[in-house]
Amino acid sequence: MKKVIFAGGGTGGHFYPIVSIIRELYKKNKSQTEIYFFGPDDYGQDFLKKEKIRFYKVLSGKLRRYFSLKNIISPFLILAGTIQTIYLLNKIKPQLVFLKGGYGSLPVGVAALIYRIPIILHESDTELGLINKLFARWAKLFLLSFPETRKHLLEDVKTELVGNPVRSFEYRGDIEEARKSMEIIDQEKPILLVLGGSQGSIEINELIFNLLENLVKDFFIIHSVGIENFEKFKTDIQTKYGKTIFQNYRYYPFVDENLLAKAYFLADIIIARAGSGIIFEIAQTGKPAVLIPLIGSAADHQRKNAYAYMAKGACLVMEKPNLKRGLFLETLHNLIIDKQKRDVMSANARSFARSNAAKDIAQIIIRQLNVKR
Q: Where are the domains of the chain?
């Protein structure tokens, strides 16, 4: 039985791609492979249990690129997590370690180097993450989502362009059943799907909140608010609007996979952040998008991701200081009127998507497991 350790975290941008890969590994090689996930917190633990993935919580500390008092304790957390992982790897004796990036990968990568266990890295963004940059020279293979990332690596680093593995949101059901799930009454209005990423987006939530009376006149809106922001947002909505606005507006703390597949299927335009995961999900669905990158994200990766995707002709990008309410409304109205432009954006999105990324990475892992050492 071959054993593989996956590590990353701690956000959905690291977690969900790993789940997609593991699902494909189970399809291809379940009887011959034991899979473990090491993460710095309990993010997605219920999801992992459902997928029958063994989870170990491993301590780690963020390597912040700015001043914070938390930087004082981070080295001690990293050291403790490394000692913990050294013990676990000695116990499990894996043949391969797969690092997705994020601070949860650091102790696992260090322990893998100590035991000389082969490492495969995957970078989601156009810009190299700090952890992947640290381990690049020792990786057996470095997997890339965007071709632009290659220029940031030394020539002798072995790379392969595979895209970012995302969950499949293909919906094969009936359109009326999908509309019924979302309680869509007015079937004439175009549908906006608003996504703020795994943790939600206060900036996007405020934009939608302040424009809601205008938006519901011309659109039906499906809005994923974010679990942490939901209760305050719900109170603000009810205080300002009561129930008068709800006929053409549905908001959720989190949209599960089943409902999200229907929402993607129904959407005419998607409004979202610009994390790599959401970009590749949108590309897979082939829907036009307006991306609002998080300014100040690590290495400004969201902004760079957004413009790399826009360069393919698949989206529009709006960012501060140009994210004005009037301009945002005008952009949406112009886009919904121009069906030809939306059709071109959809075609470009599908050509950008790498729908087989999870399958391709699973095959790479199986190939590496079969290498005799």
A: 2-167+355-369, 175-352
